[in-house]
Amino acid sequence: RKVTFRPRLFSTRIPTGPVNHSYIVGRTGPRTLNLSPISDKAPRQPADGCSPNPRAYTRRMKILVADDDRIARKVLRAFLEDASYEVVLAEDGKQAVEILMADAPPPVVILDWVMPGMSGPEVCAKLRAARLRLRPYVLMLSAKNDKNEVVAGLDAGADDFLSKPFNLAELLARLRVAQRMIEYEIDLHKKISELE
User: Fold this and answer.
1) Is the dihedral of CA 106, 108, 112, 116 positive or negative?
2) Which of these, 14, 95, 116, 194, could form a disulfide with 90 (CB 3.0-4.6 Å)?
3) How sure is the predictor about 59, in pLDDT bands with cuts at 50, 70 and 90?
4) How far is the C-alpha of 32 from the C-alpha of 12, rounded, in Å?
5) What is the rounded CA–CA span in Å between residue 36 and residue 26?
6) Cβ neighbours of 128 (radius 10 Å)
7) 138-182 confidence digits (pLDDT tens)
8) What is the rounded distance in angstroms from the CA atom of residue 134 to the CA atom of residue 58?
9) Model confidence, pTM
10) Which of 184, 178, 132 is nearest to 159 (CA)?
11) What was the pLDDT predicted at 142?
């Protein structure tokens, strides 16, 4: 069935079964979230089964989703939890910084560019200035497609950038890269500690 909510201009077909991974997710305007089905032939790739080292993905990774759009947060949480990730939500940049500065923060953050109070690049700058021992891996989401904007986001401290609307399979692939990078960094810190 087709459900339309106003005035947020949110329109989607809701599946009757489990969450369908073959969706493109994104907000196409300031107040619009777009979900469009893609080919059913796209294979589903589990979040914990794609590493040459099977032990590298035995833990359920925690991800912070920071987005001021309530519907976008809920949709992302549903997809990520269905992919076996543990999800923490933040409704703005300030709350995201508080979570990431606390004890045992999520090692990965999916960060929206445009948020009230503190934007995604400003959050990145705060994290970089904090000089954390293990800085979270930041995946920036934005409807901005201009290459200069992408460069600005990466220069601010983002580790990766994904334009909206995005393909969910691509998001999961980028999260697997993030997890590998995090585990390499943890192993490196462990080896350095052993040498000291």
Assistant:
1) positive
2) 95
3) low
4) 11
5) 9
6) 13
7) 999 988 777 888 888 888 889 999 988 888 899 999 999 999 999
8) 20
9) 0.69
10) 178
11) 87
Nearest to 123 by CA among 60, 68, 81: 68
Q: Residue 26 corresponds to which tokens in the numbers above?
A: 């994104």
Would you state the structure tokens that stand for residue 50, as one six-digit string? 């794609």
Q: Which two tokens stand for residue 154?
A: 């990466």
Residue 67 · residue 73 · CB < 8 Å:
yes
User: For tokens 């940049």, what's the residue?
Assistant: 93
- Name the nearest CA neighbour of 33 among 87, 65, 69: 69
Q: Are 34 and 23 in contact (CB under 8 A)?
A: no
CA angle 127, 59, 190 (to 5 degrees): 60
Q: What is the 3-state secondary structure (H, E, C) of the chain?
A: CEEEECCCCEEEECCCCCCCCCEEEEEEECCEEEEEECCCCCCCCCCCCCCCCHHHHCCCCEEEEECCCHHHHHHHHHHHHHCCCEEEEECCHHHHHHHHHCCCCCCEEEEECCCCCCCHHHHHHHHHHHCCCCCCEEEEEECCCCHHHHHHHHHHCCCEEEECCEEHHHHHHHHHHHHHHHHHHHHHHHHHHHHC
Q: Which of 75, 103, 73 is nearest to 89 (CA)?
A: 73
Sequence length of the chain is 196
